[in-house]
Amino acid sequence: MKSNKGVTFTSLIIYVIGLIIVTGIIGSFSVYFFSNVNTMIIKNTAEEQYSKVLSYITKDINSKNITDVTANVNENDCLIIKFADEIEHQYINKDGCIYYINNDENNKVKLVLCNNVTNGADKVFQYSNGKITINLEINKKMFSSFFNINV
Length: 151
What we know:
This protein is α+β, with helices and mostly antiparallel strands. It is about 35% helix and about 35% strand.
């Protein structure tokens, strides 16, 4: 008897059909997954944006080495927190966005924390007598927070 160890035409067709089925299943799952990811990115709610701003600010406020806090410098709607190691964090409200800028001697990092900010003539950031006040209106929803800080 002769041993045939090759691939027959029938087995080749079965392999190709199986490969097409597996590729189709994986493709349909990936289309479903990526359409859901795009939907979640688009629906970044006002509450999520506000909590992102608060997470950055509370991390800075809870630091033990704060040397100076100023707000609204040179008619800009901003909050500037300076630390003992010469690092400066700025939160700036400009053109409907809240920007976070991390200044240190080596680099400068700039992030957009939230957008669609509409506060009219009011200032978002206020600081006086050891108290930081934040009043934000994001997508027509009003948010307010107060922080006591020891400098």
